[in-house]
């Protein structure tokens, strides 16, 4: 019998099943809704069979793990060789406070560090600038100069742990501080590993923490990619992030498509600046969200790998297999956590983390159950880490590679994700690229539309959130033991900065800042210039301000 | 003139004071209030309390809604209220939303913030609050 005959026979069999079994069942008990959808409001069919993907081809669409198109993962042995890195994002208060939390997490089995900075730092302000009022140390750690960075890593050997830093607009300034702190510890840059988020495009699209307009920001990013490739080869100079796009209310598909299209934009800019694709792409990494819709998320990760392979080979003609492999970090969805009945969040996080693992993530952050209320308490942070350890050691999902490969449902969703992403790529290419699409407000509007639709679905009761719009408890006890950050951090920082400015060689600082501005104007790579500023103890705010006359300041267009 | 007054739409200034860029919530609210027939002016991100109050004066609004998710609400919400009172906007109500711990809510209310909406609040709740409390209360649609 030919393959076509077998396919026809199966379609016939499915039709017969519908008549024989399905229809009487529905007549006896109708389905609870007309339309079933994912959390992204994408339709889901009742049943998936081989008939759902008639042209499915195992070798072409899946292949074997560790080989193109990497749908089943980038490692031949999955997690049997090495588990994912458990990397909990942490940071609050002063560098002293966060240094203590880092040591606590390392003592409890965490295998990598991930620094959360406070909002003034993320925006390139020193703790004592007027805009920082009320925000110092609240959402992360306050780092205004190399002196703070030295405290942050006091007693932690930078060469031996990998460090991820979530910083974007002033990423190159903070990275310079980090490298200078490593230098002071006697570390060899060639051995220092970690990841700089350094993804400005998603800031314009979603997270909105910017300083300069897109084009000069792309120049700074290209500088860090070039510098890292040469000087800090084990460091990922960028983590192209969908996480924040999703948190801003996008669908899973939009998260996937905009993130990968951002990746294409960075690659193109670096190539245009004269770099060879295979020299730097192997060090690009990605960062995705893990939301509640289990199968949709797994399909998203699997599609991401397949798409990146296609983009790298077809669009950029990359030759190095390392350029073809999409590596990614995952964080569970902060936006899905509820302030109501907060212990329920432990369950949500476990489901989301499981999706990240079954999607083949390289590293994972699990949110703490109290994060809809405040930064995590010690206890909540520990349960979050334990959740990963339970998945790794008790659930059994790590025993085999890509355990959901071949599921009719997951393979169909993976295909839909891939096709949907290429549709978005075509639209964005048509606008002239991602920078131009951002100028036009295109991805921003797409996300706003999705988030409004979702909110309406929640309020109509079409989407149920346990404890929020159903199963609500009256007289709920409010959570206790929340982490409180008081204004003493701001006072401490103000004192430290005052002392720093009094004790450093201010002529040397002035000179380094002037060299920075001149170099940026002349299109010199800014990283060595920033390192000189940092070593002279120029502050973050001073470095960011020095570049404002050269680069300008970003104003969000109205849309 | 009479008729025009009752027809006049409630004017709402939505603002994000402070440094955080989490604007999903404020944008959803902006859209919901517009769909409910109100005139909405959204300031955009990173407004100082001074900028917020000056926009409220210029736009002659009835309501100021503030959104903060960074934890800076205890500093910035009361500051807006204080500046609004100094500017003579005595009958303009100020409400807030965001990640705000329960124990801060009574403290904010004591400082003149009329209502605080935290995650899980419904859009209709906010619409109803504005309709019932704004000086230019229109007939519910």
Output the keywords.
heterodimer; A: 559 residues; alpha/beta; five-stranded parallel sheet; 22 helices; 51% helix; 7% strand; B: 141 residues; 43% helix; globular
Structural notes for this entry:
The complex is a heterodimer of chains A (559) and B (141). Chain A has 22 helices and 10 strands. By secondary structure, chain A is α/β, with parallel strands linked by helices. In chain A, the strands form 2 sheets. In chain A, strands 1-10-9-8-7 form a 5-stranded parallel sheet. The mean pLDDT of chain A is 95. Chain B has 141 residues and is of the alpha/beta class. Chain B has helices spanning 2-7, 24-35, 49-59, 73-86, 104-110, 123-133; strands at 11-15, 39-42, 63-68, 93-98, 115-117. A 5-stranded parallel sheet of chain B has the order 2-1-3-4-5, with helices on both faces. Classes of the chains: A alpha/beta (559), B alpha/beta (141). The interface between A and B is medium-sized, with 39 and 31 residues.
Structural class of chain A: alpha/beta
Number of helix segments of chain B? 6
* Total strand segments of chain B: 5
Q: Major beta sheet of chain B, specifics?
A: 5 strands, parallel
Low-confidence stretches of chain B: 1-6
The most extensive contact between chains is: A-B, 39 and 31 residues
Cα distance spanning the termini of chain A: 59 Å
Low-confidence stretches of chain A: none
Could you spell the SSE succession of chain B in H and E letters?
HEHEHEHEHEH
Approximate shape of chain A: globular
Count every beta strand of chain A, where a strand is a DSSP E run of 2 or more residues.
10
- The secondary-structure class of chain B comes to alpha/beta
DSSP strand content of chain A: 5-15%
């Amino acid at each position: 019998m030919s393959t076509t005959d077998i396919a026809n026979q199966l379609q016939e069999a499915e039709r017969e099943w519908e008549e024989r079994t399905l229809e009487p069942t529905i007549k006896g008990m109708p389905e609870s809704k007309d339309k079933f959808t994912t959390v992204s409001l994408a339709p889901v069919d009742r049943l998936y069979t081989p008939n759902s993907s008639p042209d499915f081809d195992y070798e072409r669409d899946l292949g074997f793990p560790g080989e193109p198109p990497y749908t089943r993962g980038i490692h031949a042995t999955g997690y049997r060789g090495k588990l994912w890195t458990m990397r909990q994002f942490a940071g609050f208060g002063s560098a002293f406070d966060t240094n203590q939390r880092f040591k606590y997490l390392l003592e409890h089995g965490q295998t990598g560090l991930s620094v959360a900075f406070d909002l003034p730092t993320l925006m390139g302000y020193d703790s004592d600038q007027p805009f920082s009022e009320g925000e110092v140390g609240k959402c992360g750690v306050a780092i205004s100069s190399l002196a703070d960075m030295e405290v942050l890593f006091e007693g932690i050997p930078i060469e031996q742990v990998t460090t991820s830093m979530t910083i974007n607009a002033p990423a190159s300034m903070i990275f310079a501080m980090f490298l200078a702190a490593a230098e002071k510890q006697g570390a060899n840059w060639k051995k220092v590993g970690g990841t700089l988020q350094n993804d400005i495009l998603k800031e314009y699209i979603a997270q909105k923490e910017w300083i300069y307009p897109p084009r000069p920001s792309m120049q700074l990013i290209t500088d860090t990619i070039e510098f890292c490739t040469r000087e800090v080869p084990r460091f990922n100079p960028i983590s192209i992030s969908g996480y924040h796009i999703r948190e801003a209310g996008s669908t899973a598909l939009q998260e996937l498509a905009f993130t990968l299209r951002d990746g294409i934009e960075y690659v193109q800019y670096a190539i245009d600046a004269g770099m060879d694709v295979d020299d730097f792409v192997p060090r690009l990494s990605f960062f995705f969200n893990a939301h509640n819709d289990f199968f949709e998320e797994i399909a998203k990760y699997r599609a991401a790998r397949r798409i990146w392979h296609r983009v790298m080979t077809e669009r950029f003609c990359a030759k190095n297999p390392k350029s073809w492999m999409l590596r990614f970090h995952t964080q569970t969805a902060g936006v899905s956590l509820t302030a109501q009945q907060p212990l329920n969040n432990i369950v949500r996080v476990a489901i989301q983390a499981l999706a990240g693992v079954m999607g083949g993530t390289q590293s994972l952050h699990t949110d703490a159950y109290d994060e809809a209320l405040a930064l995590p308490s010690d206890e909540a942070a520990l349960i979050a880490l334990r959740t990963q350890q339970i998945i790794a050691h008790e659930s059994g999902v790590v025993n085999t590679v890509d355990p959901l490969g071949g599921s009719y449902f997951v393979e169909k969703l993976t295909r839909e994700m891939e096709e949907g992403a290429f549709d978005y790529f075509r639209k964005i290419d048509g606008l002239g690229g991602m920078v131009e699409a951002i100028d036009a407000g295109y991805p921003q509007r797409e996300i706003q539309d999705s988030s409004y639709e979702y909110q309406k679905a929640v309020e109509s009761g079409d989407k149920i959130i346990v404890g929020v719009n159903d199963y609500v408890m009256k007289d709920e006890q409010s959570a206790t033991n929340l982490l409180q950050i008081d204004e003493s951090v701001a006072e401490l920082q103000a004192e430290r900065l005052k002392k720093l400015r009094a004790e450093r060689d201010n002529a040397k600082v002035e000179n380094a800042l002037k060299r920075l501005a001149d170099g940026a104007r002349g299109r010199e790579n800014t990283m060595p210039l920033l390192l000189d500023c940092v070593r002279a103890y120029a502050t973050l705010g001073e470095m960011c301000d020095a570049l404002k006359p050269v680069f300008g300041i970003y104003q969000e267009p109205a849309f | 003139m009479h008729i025009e007054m009752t027809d006049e739409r409630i004017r709402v200034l939505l603002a994000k004071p402070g440094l955080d860029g989490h604007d999903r919530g404020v944008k959803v609210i902006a859209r919901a209030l517009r769909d409910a027939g109100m005139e909405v002016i959204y300031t955009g991100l990173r407004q100082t309390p001074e900028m917020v109050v000056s926009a409220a004066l210029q736009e002659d609004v009835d309501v100021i809604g503030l959104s903060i998710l960074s934890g800076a609400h205890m500093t910035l919400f009361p500051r807006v209220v204080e500046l609004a009172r100094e500017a003579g906007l005595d009958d303009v109500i100020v409400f807030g939303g965001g990640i705000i711990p329960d124990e801060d809510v009574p403290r904010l209310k004591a400082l003149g913030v009329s209502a605080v909406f935290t995650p899980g609040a419904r859009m209709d709740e906010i619409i109803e609050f504005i309709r019932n409390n704004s000086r230019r209360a229109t007939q519910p649609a």
